[in-house]
Structures are given as C-alpha cells and as structure tokens.
C-alpha cells in the first residue's frame, strides 16, 4: 500500500467483501501514515464484519449434508483483500444416511490405524501390559504337574527309593535325589517321607500305580503332585522351583510336617520306619497250630519287617 494512492479494489477472483468495510475504506482519501491508526480502524469494523459474514453463511443442516466443508475467510490487512485460508471439515455420521465411499485416488490405501508402525506400537504396549499383569499375578509352583496322591501321606513330601546296591546307577540316583530332597525340605521345615521299595514290596506296587507300570525309583511326590524321577528333580532344583514348592507347602501346612512319618530321630527305627517282626523275629515263619510244622507269619512283610510302632 503506497502513500497517497487509494486502496485496491477486490479482484474478480476474490470473494465479495462486506459493504461496511468498503465504505469505511473508501472514506480515506489518503491512507493513514501510522500503522496503529489502521489497526484501530479495523478493530472498529469487527462487529459489523462478523455480522455480515453470519448473514451470508448458508444454513447448516447436518441431516441433509453428512460431510460439510466450512471455510472461514481471513482478511489480509496488507493488501486489503479477503482470502479463504482456513477450512475445517466436520465428519457427521448419521444412521439414516449411508457413509460415502472414499474418493478413487484413496482406493486401496490403508488408514492411519492400519499403519505397520502404529500396529507394532500397539502390540508392544499390549504385550508390556500383559507382562506386568502376569508379573504381579501369584504363580502356582505346582502348575503343570499332574495330581498324584500317595496313600498314607497324600499332601506331603514322598520319596520312593531303594537302599539296595544291586544296580549301581539306580542306587546313585536314589542317593543324589535323597540329598536334594532332604536339603530343600529342611529349609522349609518339612520332613521327607522316604519309602524304601527294597524293604516293603507294597511300596513298589504303589509307585507303579502312581507313576505308571514299569516305573523305577527314585520317584518324588510333593504336595500331591508328581514331580518325576532323578533327572526331573535335579532340573527343578537347579532352577529353584523345588525350593519354591517346598516353601509353599510349608506355609500351607502351617510350619511343616515335623513329627510325622520318616523322622530320623525315632528311637525305635532310627528313621528306617521298619523294625523286625515281634511275632516271628523276622523269620517270616511261625509254628502251626498242630505244632508239627511252620506256616507263614501274617504280621510281617516278605522281609520279616513291620512298621515301627513309635513313628508310624
């Protein structure tokens, strides 16, 4: 805008300007020199300018036009023109009117929500949230182990083993598992119910019924769950899961199983759980009723042993 020249009129491409604004601008023969006077003059025209725009705007009917484009004119104070520079699109969804299909140039393109980076970020966030929930969830240490309850001590720590040295590998496995089980049980305040299949044939039948036909010793049962043989016990012990099972069982039983079967300080059996038969003295034979021969003792097992009356 040069000094002494009238303000330029609206070109044919520019939208029509409000009449109050034109009249006010035409009243100036020479443009004011200070910029503050121009700003003040424009501030005075704002009420009439907004009122004229409201009158020229078409009525807005959402039901008839689901997608409406509203353009807000902005006045250029430098060149004295009105330009359409701001536009806002309102997406109005109506149940009565169907949604318009996308334009041809956008056919086949995916939305922002389907972007690979957005999907990956969403999956990572959901994964972290799930990990946090699993982290705070109290895990059951016996999860995944089948339920097997040995008779006589269904919820305790039961170890089927042997003291015979007939098979070296079996004897060594039994000794190693016995040491592991006794150490972890002592830490949790529990006692190991050790059942020697070499002393009592019923124990061998029990372990085969629980672990499957053909199962050999050692076999371990904790809290009514079947842990496995020597390899499985060593694995869960190295990972720390066996100690967790023992502590969990000790808390559930309220301080352990002290005083139950298999105590090492028993004065009668010394922890072996068996003593020689008091009827036959361990010979498995007793005199017959006619005193002319002997018959099988019905009080002891095949080895002439009976359960210790003090700790059983």
Automatic annotation (TrEMBL):
PANTHER family noted in UniProt: F1N19.7, GLUTAREDOXIN DOMAIN-CONTAINING CYSTEINE-RICH PROTEIN CG12206-RELATED
Residue span of region Disordered: 1-22, 50-156
Domain annotation Glutaredoxin: ranges: 157-227
Biased composition (Basic and acidic residues): 119-150
Record lineage: Eukaryota, Viridiplantae, Streptophyta, Embryophyta, Tracheophyta
InterPro entries: Glutaredoxin, Thioredoxin-like_sf
Bias type Low complexity, positions: 1-14
Highest taxon, organism lineage: Eukaryota
Protein name (database record): Glutaredoxin domain-containing protein
């Amino acid at each position: 805008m040069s000094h002494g020249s009238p303000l330029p009129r609206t070109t044919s491409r520019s939208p029509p300007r409000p009449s109050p604004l034109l009249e006010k601008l035409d009243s100036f023969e020479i443009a004011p020199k200070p910029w503050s006077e121009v700003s003040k003059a424009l501030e005075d025209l704002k009420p009439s300018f907004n009122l004229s725009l409201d009158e020229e705007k078409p009525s807005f009917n959402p039901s008839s036009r689901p997608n409406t484009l509203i353009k807000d004119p902005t006045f250029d104070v430098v060149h004295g023109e009105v330009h359409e520079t701001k536009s806002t699109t309102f997406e109005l969804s109506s149940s009565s009117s169907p949604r318009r299909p996308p334009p041809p140039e956008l056919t086949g393109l995916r939305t922002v929500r389907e972007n690979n980076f957005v999907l990956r970020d969403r999956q990572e966030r959901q994964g972290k949230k799930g990990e946090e929930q699993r982290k705070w969830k109290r895990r059951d240490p016996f999860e995944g182990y089948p339920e097997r309850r040995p008779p006589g001590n269904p919820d305790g720590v039961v170890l089927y083993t042997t003291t015979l040295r007939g098979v070296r590998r079996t004897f060594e496995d039994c000794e190693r598992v016995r040491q592991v089980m006794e150490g972890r049980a002592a830490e949790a305040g529990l006692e190991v119910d050790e059942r020697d299949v070499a002393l009592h044939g019923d124990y061998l039948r029990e372990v085969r019924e629980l672990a499957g036909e053909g199962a050999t010793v050692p076999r371990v049962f904790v809290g009514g769950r079947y842990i496995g043989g020597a390899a499985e016990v060593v694995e869960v012990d190295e990972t720390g899961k066996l100690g967790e099972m023992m502590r969990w069982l000790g808390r559930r039983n309220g301080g352990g199983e002290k005083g139950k079967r298999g105590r090492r300080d028993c004065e009668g059996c010394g922890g072996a759980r068996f003593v020689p038969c008091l009827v036959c003295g361990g010979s498995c034979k007793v005199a017959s009723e006619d005193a002319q021969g002997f018959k099988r003792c019905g009080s002891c097992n095949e080895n002439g042993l009976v359960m210790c009356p003090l700790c059983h």
